[in-house]
What we know:
This protein has 78 residues and is mainly α. The chain has helices at 7-19, 22-29, 33-47, 64-75; strands at 52-54, 60-62. It has a single domain (7-75), classed as Orthogonal Bundle (Arc Repressor Mutant, subunit A). The protein has a two-stranded antiparallel sheet.
Amino acid sequence: MKTRIALRELENFVAVAEHGSMTGVADEIGISQPGLSTSIRNLERMLGVSVLVRHRGQGVSLTPEGGLLMAVASRVGV
């Protein structure tokens, strides 16, 4: 079965990865922080891997799988 990732979820992931903060990105892209977190969790659930490590009060960092996803996203122009 093929997994289809919504472009919006991939864009949200890239924005968070580049910014390093869910809260800061949520404000910038006009989505609530809980909505952004849900988007990232949905992406992780679809892929079956964690793409971000959440550091309470200190932002996020990429997992090795998140780094691979960023490489793919940049290749497709996200």
